[in-house]
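Thread amino acids onto this structure.
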């Protein structure tokens, strides 16, 4: 696999080796030893899977006291996936990085603890899978507003209005959000 730093070096774009022929393909999506050799010594405790229609925007989510690192990928459809640095001590605090993940490119994104995470689906029937380093705790859930002008995420929405949950529509601005110190 190839592990590349993004514009925010702690967020990594991972391209697995894919072996394909006329029957289909095979790829390894998680191997603790291979990831550790690539500098990512990770321990996962929870896997999640969501399916969304085109235009669904989920995020920007994070847990403050039990931060989750997330290894994310798409198995059907495609998304624009975003990580926002919420580590106040970081030189990249408040900055974001976004990549397109799809069933076609088979890439994964490592979003480390200390980041808010979100995505918008670009196709109907998009399946999004992610491994988490901490268990989900609804009492520790936080949300930064997806369109906070201070962050300035360039979501590829075109003429679409995103489909949001009530929780995501009521996210906090970064200036008002609890962040990692």
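Threaded sequence (181 positions):
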């Amino acid at each position: 696999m190839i592990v590349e730093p993004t514009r925010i070096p702690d967020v990594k774009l991972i391209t697995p080796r894919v072996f394909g022929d006329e029957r289909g393909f095979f790829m390894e999506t998680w191997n603790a030893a291979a990831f550790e050799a690539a500098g990512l010594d990770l321990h996962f405790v929870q896997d999640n899977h969501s399916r969304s229609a085109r235009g669904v925007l989920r995020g920007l989510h994070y847990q403050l006291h039990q931060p989750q690192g997330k290894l994310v990928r798409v198995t059907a459809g495609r998304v624009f996936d975003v990580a926002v640095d919420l580590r106040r001590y970081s030189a990249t605090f408040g900055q974001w990085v976004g990549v397109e993940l799809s069933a076609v490119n088979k890439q994964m994104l490592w979003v480390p603890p200390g980041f808010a995470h979100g995505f918008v689906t670009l196709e109907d029937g998009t399946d999004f899978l992610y491994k988490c380093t901490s268990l989900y705790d609804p009492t520790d859930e936080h949300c930064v507003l997806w369109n906070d002008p201070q962050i300035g995420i360039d979501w590829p929405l075109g003429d679409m209005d995103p489909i949001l949950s009530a929780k995501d529509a009521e996210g906090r601005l970064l200036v008002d959000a609890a962040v990692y110190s």
